[in-house]
Amino acid sequence: MNGHASIVIVGAGPRGTGYLERLAANLPELYGDRPVDIHVVDPHPPGPGRIWRTAQSPLLWMNSRAEDVTMFTDETVDMAGPVRPGPTVAEWSGIEGRTFPTRPQQGAYLRWVYERARAALPATARLHEHRTTALRIAGPREGRQRVWLEGGAAPLLADLVVLTVGHLDAEPDPEQRALTRFAARHGLLHLPPDFTADSDLAALPAGEPVLVRGFGLAFVDLMVLLTEGRGGRYEGEGDALVYVPSGREPRLHVGSRRGVPYQTKIGYSLDGEPPPLPRFFGAAQTDALLRRTGPVDFRRDVWPLIDKELGWAHYHRLFAAHPERTALAWDDFERAYETAPPSGAELAAVVAAAVPDPADRLDLDALDHPLDGIRFSSTEALQHGLRDYIGDNLTRRHDPAHSADAAVFAGLLSVYGQLLRLGKRVDPGPWWHGFFSYLASGPPGPRMRQLLALSRAGVVRFLGPGLTVETDEERGLFRAASAAVPGEWTEARALVEARIPDPTLELTGSPLLRALHEDGARATAAGLLVVDPADGRVLERDGRPHPRRFALGPHTTARTGSAFTRPRTGGAAFAQNDAAARAALTLLRDGACPLPAPLSA
């Protein structure tokens, strides 16, 4: 082993690539011309990683427009490191900006970003790629770490280890294990939560009913791969779009807690004055929460502030862009809204007096439970009702007359930035991340038009909200029912869980993260790795940040709200990457991680 400092980055997908870019940008200032070895460990291609690898179906799309995705910093990012601008996916590839790139196209962009970051490293930094899996980290707090790799090679020695492992497989929970055992007993098929592109969908037989639990983005991928992916095609366009089956499709019966797809991606830009954010959930409010001596509860202490903040974004836009639909002067409404307590009757009365049409008011609870209390006379009536709902949502999300929806999206991004500041003090739990995705990360409009065409063709059938899945031991079948059509059951010999695995340390498929937790890393009740929000250092169970271990990404308490960053939106993930890179380089420079002496010959 030479006398160089050594950094090991575990995970070479988008997050690892973004961290490498920040290392390259900050090395000259913080570490000068001293030599450093940088090891990148990932069994998948560096840059795209597993999820965005180029070797997957081009039928699968990104969930963002080409003009809305960048891997590069700009002056809106709140960071200490240098800005290194670069192109969006649209600018780099030549794809029309408002189209949705395919996953392989995005993977090619990420590979290029990785190569550019590697080329930007100074000559004294040597990059080593290891196309394998990291299994375990060990080492004293004040000494070098050892990173064991699959395959039995000698462990990598590291002064610092940075985990940027992204989304991972997970072990099934007790319910999923029971469903798999039931399927094995009766010769059925059960596909547990997984990345849809990696699931064995070939096992789903043509023409047979399949129960699908989950109506988010994983379902959209499933829908695509089992229709167009099996030779079906679309004819016509817009509301006249028609699906022409190949005859190889299964019949998908889909339901979920809400019973509806995620909100359709907004199809216009927010012009004019953006809502001035943050206002009611900003630095002052998060500072006050951080100063509390007692526990901070998300629902009690944080959610009311979020509710008021998103309402502020909504009504600011409504008054500015659509004043004819309001009944008060803006200044009067602003004063009344500001003084009313969050999430109470007084605030609701202020809004009702100022906004006559209930359809123009923001009701987050109604958005989260769009079909609560609605009953349909039959499953056929449910199909018509859901098609009407999806069609109305598709129309609304492409109509600038409802531009307050786009302002709420901007508010959601602002809220996520404040939640990152709160870090370990509050655990939003899985509901918040699901709600955020439901409002802000829905499918593109063309996918919803395809869903409507598939429904009209009978390839997709809606099960409704409050989905219940049961097993029938006597008949050897899966059964599903919805609160929307009481007493109606749908039976099938196959069940697909259309969602990705939850990122918990207890159930993670990563032996590395499991071992880290067993070695003393702190976790939340939801099973996320607790990190210092300031620089991403892993916190131990006694609350101390580990001086040599960092973690960034969805398996941590500092997870950001979306996979990629829009240009000129502050880029919380960029700020995290920069802070973690600068902290690591400072630790090396200042001797907190003393360099090893070279081995004698």
TrEMBL record:
InterPro entries: FAD/NAD-bd_sf (IPR036188), HpyO/CreE_NAD-binding (IPR038732), L-asp_N-monooxygenase_NS-form (IPR052189). The keyword Chaperone does not apply. Its EC number is 6.3.4.4. It is an enzyme of class 6 (ligase). Keywords: Ligase. It holds the Pfam family NAD_binding_9. Residues 8-167 form the FAD-dependent urate hydroxylase HpyO/Asp monooxygenase CreE-like FAD/NAD(P)-binding domain. Coiled coil: none annotated. The keyword Ligase applies. One of its GO terms (molecular function) is adenylosuccinate synthase activity. This is Adenylosuccinate synthetase. It comes from Streptomyces venezuelae (strain ATCC 10712 / CBS 650.69 / DSM 40230 / JCM 4526 / NBRC 13096 / PD 04745).
